Every structure is written in C-alpha cells, then in structure tokens.
Amino acid sequence: MATADQLLELIFSWIDQRELCAEQLRKLARELESLRKKCNGSECVGSSVSVVGAACLIGAGAATVFTGGAAAPFLAFLGGVYSGVGVTISVVTKITEHFLSSDTMEEAQKIEKKSNDIAEKIQKLFKQLKEERKEGSSFTDDELDRHVMTEILGAVARRSGLKQKIIDSMYERMDFFNAEPGYMRHNHSFHNPNVMVALAGILMFFTFEGSGKKYKLLFAEGAKQLIKQMSTTGLKTALKGGAMVVGGAVGMAFALPEAIDNWKDQIKNNHVTEASQSLRDTADEILKMTRTLKRQFDNIKEMFEELADVKRCIENSNRSSKEKETLIKFAIKYCKDEDVRQWLRENSESVAFFKLVDMFHFLEQELDKKKKKIDRKDIDIIFVAHGAIEESKIPASCLLPLSTIKDVLLYSPWNCTINAGVAYGVATGCIQPQHRRFSCRGKGCQIPDERHRPTSLPNRWNSMKAAGGRKIPNIIVVPLRIPKDGAWEGFKFLKGKYGEPEKNRIVIPFILPGEIGSSLRLPFFVITLALSLVLCFTSYEATVHLAACLSKISAQTKLSEDDLKAQYACTIDKTRMTYPENMLSAIDGDTNLYRALKAVFG
C-alpha cells in the first residue's frame, strides 16, 4: 500500500477512535449519574477548580499536543474550544473511586492509547511522504507541500473508484492538483478549488505544517474554513486569550494526568450533575468535530465519485438515459459560458453530441496507443469541416469551455472561404500569415483580387483565447462526405517535415456515420465542448485549429463588418483565401491528405 493510502487509512481510523471516545464519555456520564443517585446522602464540600480544555478529559492523551507530535491532534481544536470554560464538580470519595476504576474508564484509556499511537504514525507518514519526494533530487518547500497534498488526494480518488490510469493522467497534466492560491483564483478547471482548501484544513487539523511560502496561505485558509465549519455545527470557537491559528497549533496544550487530578478534586466537591452534563456536552462536541471532518472528506470524495461516473459515461457508447443525463449535468456544471449551458439544456438528448464524445474517446484511445511517440502533453488538433457563420454572436470564450483546451485558432478573416491549400497548410502547420493570398471565388467577378484583401489584416492568426469575452459570429460546422476514393482513413497523425511540434499534430475530419451526418449542423462550440470533456481524463491539453470556411451561412445573413474588423478582420462577399501553389510544391507532403482536402475545399 502506498504511503498516502496508509496515511488516509490512519486518519479515518483516528476519527473512528474519537467517536468511540465520545461513546465512552456518554457512558461515563450515565454511570456517574447512577452513582450519584446511590450516594446522594453523602457530605458536600464546597470548592471549585477550572479545567482547561475539558473536552479533552478522557480522549486527549498523555502527551501534550505539540511536544513530539504524539498527542491526539483534536486537542489543537478542542483544547482551545473549551479554554476558559470552568466546570465545577463536587462528589464524595466513594463516587470518585468507582468513577476512576470503572471498566468504562479503563476502556476509554485503551482507546486513548490507540489514538495516540495512530497520531504518532500519522506524523511519521507526513515526514515519510516528504522524504520520498526528496529522494534522488532536490525540491523546493512548495513542491514538497504540493507532493503531500496531491498524494493524499490521489488516495481519496482511489477510494472513490477512480482508476489509477486516470489519476496518473491528472497528475501529468498538473492543473487538477495545482493548489497555488493564484492558480485557483484564475483557473477555470473542472475541479472545485474549495476541495484543495478543505484538504488543507484537514491536514492542518492533523498538525501538518506547510513549509512553502505559496502553500502557507492555503493552509491558513484551510484552517480558517474548518474552524468556520465547526462553528456552524455548534462547536464553540472562542479561544482563550484570543489564540491564533499558526502552523497547525490552535488553543492550549493539555495533558491527561493533570485533567484526571483536576476532575478527581472536583468530584469530591459533590457537583455530580454538572460533571455528568459536562461529559455529555463534551461527547456531543467531539461528535460534531468528527462529523465536520467526515463531511469535508465526503465533499472531496463526492467530486472524485462524480468524475468516476462521468468517465464511465464517456467510455460506454451504449449509454443509458441516466448516463446521458449524468454527462450533460457535468458539462453544464463546469462550463462557464451561459450560451453553452443553454444549448446543453435544450439539446440534452442530442444524438450528435454523444457521437462526438464517442469520436473523441476513440481519439483518446489512439493517443494512448501512440503515447511513447508523442513527445509532449500539448497536442495540436486540426478539425476539418464545412463551415459558415451566422448573424447571432457569442463570446469567443465559448470555444474554450474547459481548461483542457488551451486555445482555438481561426485562420481566415470573417466572411471568407478557404481552399485545399490553406487547409493543408493548417493541417501540417506550414502556413504562415505572410503566405495568405485573396481572390474572388465567384465566376465573372468584376472586383479585382487586390480589393478582396482586407484593408487591415493582422500579422497573426485569430486566437480565441486572446479574444476572450469579445463577441464573434456563431460558427456552424457541417460534417464532411466520405470521399469515394477512401482518402480519409480516419485520424491523421502527422509526422516528418510538418512543422513544430512534429509528432503532436492530429487531423480530425468531421465525419459522422449514416443519416446523423447527412443533414447535421452544429455550433462549433459543441465540438470543442465534447473534446474538452474527454480530455479532462487524460494528460493532454489541446490547441484546436479550425480548417473550415467562415463565410456567411446565407446571402441574407447580415454582419456588422465594423465589429468583425475590430475583433480581427473581415472580407467583402465572395472572397477566398488561398495558399501559393509554389509553396505547396515545395512540401514533400502527404498526398492522400491533400487529395482528401481537395475533395472538401476544391
């Protein structure tokens, strides 16, 4: 069993022991009341003493919290929680003797010893996790903190049913387990940053001390949120002397022998009813504490269980209605753009969307087969389709629904078609902005070719990441017809003299089977959404290159040319962007690929 899995097992075991401790406290309270009734004629002596951290009476441990790390971690909270709470107890010697020598007290002490043993092991495993990372090379303090967190999250993921292969892929892509505060504020990943805060709070609770500068803020926030959660469940959080959360230490240190002595003195003062009530209250507070910890773990576990369910939905092409619903809800939950979410709500039964998921899942499998040949985790996907633009507008960010798609690049100006040479240049990565040529695509055009060139044409491609929230025309894509000569053999993994990176370019023709593809028209953002969902469970991040025409969908389509020019560039009607023939002839290329593109774009 991996170190992180052992650590997680011990943490859950420690929580179980705290709950057993609470049961013993309640039992001791009942026994104390019973003894009081039997001895209610005894003489009372009136003095009182304040017990610091009464919550820790039985379950705390013989060592102090922060000396040697052997004391039970919950003292860090409950010792502080009950600081300043005075409990006055008076009781006769006979009750004292019965109380201290009872089987229940003996059982509580056994539980306490086991708890302390577990707490010691937890501290040793924290150190062991860091030492494992240090072996073989040097790492910064922040990298060590991150290692501990990611390993424990991985252990939770395994307990939630997520396959190790998927966890490893998430590790490789890095963004899923990145807990740096700045990254969590600005990243739009599909995981919930609150999960990292919750885990940090749990680790602080168990006196894990972050040593890196970046992660100290995260651990402080985690401890703050955990105390807040405990407060909402009824735990008393006013700490004596205004104690602060620093490096896992909260409240006052406390030792069991002193507590026993204090309780023994108080019991002799014959306030047994108050003592038994204090025991019940303490048991309740311990249970509230353990429930809070469990709830924090449950929130993390639920996220991983959701991911495991979604991954099964992606892998199963024969999805049930419930599985389809699961996938759609997941997409709606994590997509940040309302236009995308609205499409999903209105098209939750879309056969085409799930066929796209199948297509990209097949791509994932092909990538896995070629994993050793792919030199980086950044891949370039060239999506080849028939395309057009509508009057309706969407934010450019719609095309980047999840962080697994780094950017989407468009190559022609708005209101412009492309020829096979341009598509081939996009696919191979050979085309550069200076290669663009423009001409009229209509027969008998009276407008000279030079007037088809936009007056202001940026010396770059149209990046949707750079465009951000700016409005662009809604791009509609239509599937390709399968050429009769079999030029399309499926995905094209390009290699050789095809630009950089050589091994990471995948050409995907938009081809769907049967009647589905014959009359289908989809917003391009649906394509990037399906792709990004599948990539969530891989180690890859993609830049998507669209090889498609961006002309008006019909002659009646009205476009705001000024807006389109401000966003990038716009051509007059019936304009085509081409690629110089002499550039094509200089490429020792893939003739099948070019033939296939020629059949599409002419």
Automatic annotation (TrEMBL):
Q: Which InterPro entries match?
A: ApoL
Question: What residue ranges carry the coiled-coil annotation?
Answer: 18-45, 108-135
GO biological process per UniProt: lipid transport; lipoprotein metabolic process
What keywords are annotated for this sequence in UniProt? Coiled coil, Membrane, Transmembrane, Transmembrane helix
Q: Name one GO cellular component term.
A: membrane
Q: Which residues cross the membrane?
A: 44-66, 72-92, 190-208
Q: Which GO terms describe its molecular function?
A: lipid binding
Q: Which family does it belong to?
A: Belongs to the apolipoprotein L family.
Please state what the protein is called: Apolipoprotein L3
